[in-house]
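quick one, 298 residues, struct below
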Amino acid sequence: MRAGARRALAVTILLGSFAASPRPAPAAPPVTKPGATKPGATKPGASKPGASKPGASKPSLDAPAKRVAPLVPLATLPSVARVKVTSHGKAISIVEEVNLPRGDWKGEALRFHVAFGAPGPRAIDAQLVGVGDGELEPDDDDAGEVLTIERVPRRPLDAHPLLGRETMAGIVVNVPADALTTAFARGNMASLRIRSLVDATEPDTSGATSVVVRLGASRGTPLTLGRIVATAAPPSSPLARVEAKLCGPDADPHPLAVGMIPRPPQVERPSAIAPVLAVRRATDDLCVRMWHAQPKAP
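---
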């Protein structure tokens, strides 16, 4: 057989083998049940992933911040009726009684900013106590209504300034309208009682421990300071001497009278004046120094 004939025969056999091989059957289309959604399809009315629902608004980075309603001027002129400082040895408790006359109060709730003193408090709370007719301050034993407080880094725009500077960290005291109504029913005056507990400072070279009590201003007027009381409670030894004065820029340097409980038999009394007579400025604080009696040798 010639070479050309052999090549033609090989091609014919190769083509015959392809024709004899079975072809694969075409794949059957997927069966979809009535009402079902095909794979990869989206149900009618459904949103595609990442798509916003009709009517939904995306958050805007340019949305204006929530506005705070302008603060209505305070309808009453507060005053600090009494500051009581009690030494407990390693700790000192401070009670400020801030009187709130009814004035032109119209039945609204009030919020007050109270700045922390120095040292900062371990604990702090607030109560509202009614003051009877003819009384200047509530008694220590008068139970008050506990008020809610919140810690803040500075005075919020919706809180009235009361004690300390507006830029100081402190608390906001929330005074509900019904609590004020109850307190005013006793004698048209309520007292905001601020109680705090602070760590006692290390005695200075003279042996005195000290504390700074925040005063303040309202409607641009410094709050009048009524009186100052100091005492000691176990395990602290009794107080032997107490000094108080206003401190701050341009503060009146005169020493202030302090009522000590119990009164020591012999007390050095410099030319102290009643706190109510001192010239007050809005930037004043009250600085108190205390010396404890030394235990007698056996």
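Residues 79-292 form one domain.
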